[in-house]
Design goal:
By secondary structure, the protein is α/β, with parallel strands linked by helices. It contains ten helices and ten strands. It has a domain of 165 residues: 3-Layer(aba) Sandwich (Rossmann fold). Helix 3 runs parallel beside helix 6. The longest helix is centred in the C-terminal third of the chain and has 18 residues. It is globular. It binds adenosine-5'-triphosphate.
Length: 238
C-alpha cells in the first residue's frame, strides 16, 4: 500500500524551477531516500509536502488526504511530521519541555499512543540522561535525536527528515539511522529521508529517488541504486 503519492509536482521560485514535474510513490512501512546534490530540490520537495511552499502544479496525497490543500498547521494532525534541516529546538527549554511540545497537536489515532516521553527516553537513552538540561547545551547528535523524538510524539504516519546526518560524526549517523530503520520495522512507520549522504541513506532505505535539477532522474530499489555507478557519478558526488 502506498502512504504517499505525488504526481507532477512543480515548484518555481521566480524563474528558478526547483521541482519540475516530480512524480513518485512511497510505500507504507518503508524508508524512501531522496538523494541529490546541493540544490537538486530535496528541501523544496519536503517543504512542499508539508505545506510550507505552494506548488504551481501537481497533486500529493497522504493516504486519502489531499496534502496540497491541507494547511501547514494541520499537517501533524493529518499524520505528517517534518523534521527540517537545522535541528530547530527551543534553546532555552529543557529536553523534557521540548519533547512535551511534540505532544501538542498530535494525531489522534483512536488507539493507545505508540510514543510517549518515556518511550523516547528508551529509544534515545542520552535524552533521558539529559532531560533537565536546556537544549542549547546539547551536542549536534543529541539535538538531532531530540527533534526526531519530538516528531515521533506527534504519532506520525509518515516522517519527513531533511539532512539529519549533516555535520554529525559517522558513528552518530549510523546510530540514528539504525534506530530509524528499527522504528520502521517495529512500528510500521513510513520515512521519507532527504540526504546528500547517499551511502548512509541507502544503507537503511528500501527505495531511493534521485533528484537532479528538480527532476526525478532515478527511482529504484535502494540496493540497485547503491550499485549504480552512472547515477552515483552523475548525481550523487560520492
Ligand atoms: P540543499 O541540500 O543544498 O538544501 P536541495 O536539494 O535541498 O539542496 P533546494 O534547497 O530545494 O535543494 O533548492 C532547489 C533550487 O531552488 C536551488 O536552485 C535553490 O537555489 C532554489 N531555491 C531554494 N529555495 C529558494 C527560495 N526561497 N528562493 C529562491 N530560490 C530558491
Amino acid at each position: 500500500m502506498n502512504a504517499l503519492t505525488v504526481s507532477d509536482l512543480t515548484v518555481a521560485y521566480g524563474p528558478v524551477r526547483a521541482l519540475d514535474g516530480v512524480s513518485f510513490e512511497v510505500a507504507s512501512g518503508c524508508v524512501t531516500a531522496v538523494l541529490g546534490a546541493n540544490g537538486a530540490g530535496k528541501t523544496t520537495l519536503l517543504r512542499t509536502l508539508s505545506g510550507l511552499v505552494r506548488p504551481s502544479a501537481g497533486v500529493a496525497h497522504l493516504s486519502d488526504r489531499d496534502l496540497l490543500r491541507t494547511p501547514a498547521e494541520e499537517m501533524t494532525r493529518t499524520g505528517l511530521a517534518h523534521v527540517p534541516e537545522g535541528r530547530g529546538v527551543i534553546a532555552e527549554l529543557t529536553v523534557r519541555e521540548n519533547l512535551r511540545l511534540g505532544v501538542l497537536g498530535a494525531r489522534r489515532t483512536g488507539r493507545r499512543r505508540a510514543f510517549d516521553v518515556d518511550r523516547i527516553y528508551d529509544l534515545f537513552p542520552v535524552l533521558g540522561e539529559r532531560r533537565d538540561q536546556v537544549a542549547h547545551t546539547l551536542s549536534g547528535g543529541e539535538r538531532q535525536m531530540l527533534v526526531i523524538g519530538r516528531a515521533l510524539l506527534a504519532e506520525p504516519r509518515i516522517l519527513l527528515l531533511d539532512e539529519p546526518s549533516l555535520g554529525l560524526a559517522p558513528r552518530i549517523v549510523a546510530q540514528i539511522f539504525a534506530l530509524l530503520r528499527n522504528l520502521v520495522d517495529t512500528e510500521g512507520l513510513t520515512v521519507l529521508l532527504a540526504e546528500q549522504n547517499a551511502r548512509s541513506a541507502l544503507s537503511i532505505a528500501d527505495r531511493g529517488l534521485v533528484l537532479g535539477l528538480g527532476r526525478v532522474v532515478a527511482d529504484e530499489p535502494a540496493h540497485v541504486l547503491a550499485d549504480d555507478v552512472r547515477v552515483r557519478d552523475a548525481y550523487l558526488g560520492n
